Amino acid sequence: MPRHSAYVPHGVIPAVLLPFFDDLSIDEASFRKHLRDVTAVEGLSAITINAHSTEVASCTFDEQRSVLEIAGEEVGSKTPIVNGIWADGSVEAARLAKMATAGGASALLVFPPAPFTLGQHAGMAVEHFRRIADATDLPLIAFQYPLATGQGYPNETILRMIEEIPTLKAIKDWAGTVQQHEWHVRTLQNLSRPFNVLSTQSSWLMASLTLGCKGLLSGSGSVIADLQAQLFRAVQANDLATARALNDRIYPLATVFYAQPWVDMHNRMKEALVLMGKLPRAVVRPPLVKIERAEIERIRKALVEAKLLPATSAKAA
């Protein structure tokens, strides 16, 4: 797969889903179709794999390599691929980075190590990213969690990471509060070197984008990449009326996708694609379990409200 060597993380980047068979093995044919469906949307800058949306925590190293290979074969010639780096240890993160680089990824999305929930300091975060940066020349995207989780990077830590890791080019911003998010946009996008904030505030995406994010990276792009791309263009053009109309369609889906518990967000997106006839089944790997029928019906109604299903579908089940 040819790497898109000049790629800089920006614009609209859907994080795709990973379909499974009932026996929990990867449904390669459905995954290939899903990749084609998403990347057919106009206005995307890349896609993301091996992330929350593809249930990376439940995938082995070899499966993650296979997911990258399949994505590269199917869409990699035309669409840059951002590969997630999910590991609790920095040595394993570096091994994944080497694999993704050899496999043709164009950028890496680095998840915070789970041990940080027990406490972290700036030196730990910098060392984690340095180990990854030493293993690859690809641009890195730091996944910024809410500070309350313990895995979010405090302001001073982010600034030190950017200063000491030249290949760190962006954050995927899940700060969770408007104040922290606005600090990221105002501060990080006005440093002495280029740096982009990619919103993943998917439950309040329009408000987030109006603050000036240089892009968005979102799992709900697996379902509504076209609406996200249109919204991003409208905000960039300062077309508030169009942005509001698009947000009116996105809002009902954001409400059902990002309901509690958050861990089911991509579970719900799979159900949405089944309802739309784009996936044959909505199988998730344990510890996730299939959501209840009543919740599936709420998703169906949201799809109707978003004009992604005909009104008659609200009564069919």
In short:
The chain is built from 11 helices and 8 strands. The chain is an alpha/beta fold and 317 residues long.
SSE diagram, text form:
Layout: E1 11-14, H1 28-39, E2 47-49, H2 61-75, E3 81-85, H3 90-102, E4 107-110, H4 122-135, E5 140-144, H5 155-164, E6 168-173, H6 178-188, E7 196-199, H7 205-210, E8 215-218, H8 221-236, H9 240-257, H10 265-275, H11 293-305
Parallel strand pairs: 1-8, 2-3, 3-4, 4-5, 5-6, 6-7, 7-8
CATH topology: the name is TIM Barrel
Oligomer: single chain
Would you identify the CATH H-level superfamily? Aldolase class I
Summing up helix and strand content along with how strands pair, one would put the structural category as alpha/beta
Overall mean pLDDT score?
Answer: 96
CATH class identity: Alpha Beta
Uncertain residue ranges: none
Largest sheet report:
8 strands, parallel
